[in-house]
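Re: the 412-residue chain
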Amino acid sequence: MLRRQYSHESGKTELVRARKEYFERRTRSLNAPSPIQQFGPCGRIMKNSAMVMQIQDPASQRLTWYKPPLTVLVIKKVHDATILAPFVQLVHWLVHDKSMVVFVEAAVLDDTLLKEYGDFASVRERLMTFRAGTDDLTDKIDFIICLGGDGTLLHASSLFQQSVPPVMAFHLGSLGFLTPFEFNNFQDQVLNVLEGHAALTLRSRLQCVVLRKTTEDGKEKKKPTTILVLNEVVVDRGPSPYLSNIDLYLDGKHITSVQGDGLIVSTPTGSTAYAVAAGASMIHPSVPAIMVTPICPHSLSFRPIVVPAGVELKIALSPEARNAMWVSFDGRNRQALQHGDSLYVTTSVYPVPSICALDQISDWFDSLAECLHWNVRKKQKQIDELSDMTHSSSDTLEEIDTNHHDDRPADT
């Protein structure tokens, strides 16, 4: 009995040590503003080697190549016949005209409709294939071209759990908030990127770690799972009819308990996705921040908040919670979290370098206007002549003056 108890305590100690070592390696910040180090004659910020804070003018974030890119990954929206013709044109041009090594998913080539394109047979033999979740693309791809909607960019992000190559996204889907390029003159636009004349938007991602509760012998049921997301991680009540009861911690401090349908933790890129539908503000993707948005909170004062990039959020079930909570990552990998399980979320050090069609500001506001019809309303009619306004004002004053005299009492 004593030996079993000692083994259990030893296992818990090792688990605590492993967790501590993991979170000590966590980078505290990414693309966060780097303030001046001195304030006035005496005050200054204490030096801390754990703080990695950098600031860069967004206009200076431009793509450059230290050697010519040779390999390109083409991500195509599957099961969409309208994208087959652009896909064939693109890979044919990349292989024959630019002599590049082209990678595509094996599932894309399984499409039987590709057989209808006679000139694709010669290109097909020269394409490199891979299978998502099985083959590792790390250090094999120089840049990425996406054909489709926003989902293609999210899929490209999920393929790289560390450094992500620059992504060029063509708008061939439904919404296209993250896909600024039109396919009409794709040759000129791709050449411009290959020559290194393009602006970049560094879209931060969230690093999500799921830690399962321990068993009686001090071992975890499952190993910690680490997932990087570009839009958001969503925690909800799943199929349960009860309100979710979730505890939210920020850097180890209990902030609040969420009672409602759930919680959205999103990047600035994801602020225009699920978060804005739940009432959050829209944040430019270059802003270093993490958004916390409740889903249908059972409180009139629970408003969305924005916290600094690099802080660590912990999400866990409250002890009095009646049901489990469910978590999904960019709409995928949905799984249940039970009592004792916890989810840790912080800013990843691996952003997605998204290539701009024009620049960071123009691309984002164009997307707001075209996709979300931001601030679209009928404009007020213009007053044609200033004299009309003056005349109208004078008439009004005369009427007021006349009425004022009429109300005076008679002299006695």
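The longest strand covers residues 253-260.
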